[in-house]
Specification:
- The chain has 590 residues and is mainly alpha-helical.
- The protein has a domain of 175 residues.
- Helices cover 57% and strands 4% of the residues.
- It is built from 25 helices and five strands.
- Strands 2-1-3-5-4 form a five-stranded mixed sheet.
- Helix 4 crosses helix 5, helix 5 packs across helix 6 and helix 7 runs antiparallel to helix 8.
- The chain is globular and about 85 Å long.
- The N terminus is likely disordered.
Amino acid sequence: MALDVRNERARAPQLRRPSAWTARRPSGWTAAVAGVLVVSFLLRIWGVRHGLPYAFNADENAHFVPKAIGLFGHSYNPHYFVNPPAYTYLLHIVFDVWFGGREGVYKAYANDPTEVFVVARVTAGAVGTLAVWLLYVCGKRLFDRRVGLLAAALFGVSFLPVFYSHLALNDVPTLAPICLSMVGAAGILRYGRVADYLLAGFGLGLAAAFKYTGGIVLLPLLGAAAAQFMAQGGRKPAVRGLVLAGVAALVAFLIANPYALLSFNEFKDGLDHQTTVADDAIGKLGLTQDNGVMYYLWTLTWGLGFIPAFAALGSIAVLWRDERRLIWVLAPAPLIFLFFMGSQTRFFGRWLIPVFPMICLLAAYAMLELADGLGRRRPALRPTFVALAGILLCGQGIVASLHDGIVLSRTDTRNATRAWMVKHIPAGSKIVVEPVVPDSWASDLGGPVPGGAKNGSRWIKFSTSRLNQTPDGRVEAGAGPILNIEDYERGLTPALIDTYEQQKYCWVISGSTQRGRAEVEPDVVPKALAYYAELERRGEVVHESSPYKNGQAPVKFNFDWSFDYYPLAYARPGPEMIIYRLRGGACAGV
């Protein structure tokens, strides 16, 4: 039975009363929502081919796409639970349909993975656009169409959700089930129906199956259920609803992640590993921020925008006046998530994305309340105030997302560097390449080239995945313990230059996303800085490829801005790439 959810102060917020224009012109709202969705989708696929045929994002290259293809060769057990597999399963289905099954996707991935990654990225963008629509529905239920539309517009143009729609990662796809659960939570608050509990629970389970932190959407569900519980006659329906929501969440999670139960030990190991990684900064050289909460507050000012961030904060006071129950539905999740994620020792802007829907709703409500307040003083200017509220709320995101689309649509500096190398460095030459590119970057599409390396690569690469130092202190290629990409700078020493020259590795390719890690923490890796100084002294710069606009100073290394190109200084994607030519030792006559 539907509950009476009127404000305890008997004053419903003005935004929840449909206007006369709303009643007469539903098609106008349909067109407006459609326009938001079209713009949102176009922003998410503009520049979607960036970097290809090479996937330069390490997570994109190693996780979901290859795992989805791998499912064609064995059972549906992914044998990998560091990230939950819902997005992997989704890509597997899409690949099966798009490429016509196993043979088609294998052939495409082996010959030229461009199409495979484009399909995976567009899938992420399409699901991200679905999340925008679901947020509109949620806002319409909680407030009215205006709040829903403005929140959806903000969500549709916000920089971080737009940028990560360009990568085949699970961050953006997780937003759709999060918003689906929020639609259910809004229904619980407004109507208290069993169907809404089931919807909220199903979305919750699905969100956690896409990304474990998507489970934060549990808090809006609990907030809405608490409101029903405290209402007259609402205790039994709320308890019954929560039980049903819990069952629905478990069912949804197991549908999208069945081997969490069927292979529980593997699932548990993956969870343990994920927790360890999130709370371990030993290997994350370059992560210099000490306060995660402050880092995420800073992230909001550009990932969402200054005005949206402050408007969301101000909306809490407005809702305290208008309808306090909405605070418990929308505010706890962002605040608790902010402090929880900020307490970890690693923090990246994209990890904050799961709470963007709640923040967008809060910000939209505050701005429209402000516009309406000004409109009551100057009725003739009310439409102007509403339009201005929309511009102020979405303006920063629009500028940032348009800029990023332009950047991503241009040639990546790593591909420009490779093109120069193909012309100027003979096949079979020995090269040193910092881990700013995947292994496939040294290979040619379509197969080995004449004169190339025995492993099929065009050039013979120096091993950068080891410390390259023997127990007796000698520097030697392939010696020492394994290093991951995060530890590369820790293995650098000036003596490596001698090794390069002795073993005829005459070309050294350096990228700023590696060197920058050492430069922001010079006390941690002094040998790495000495290595670069020695490289500059003994190497001749023969090629440079910069991602920056002419006259713009380089962006200081940061695990967000060095990879998502938010600063307007960027003109193209990629790090600053430099090729050095060594002339000493065995390289003298080459």
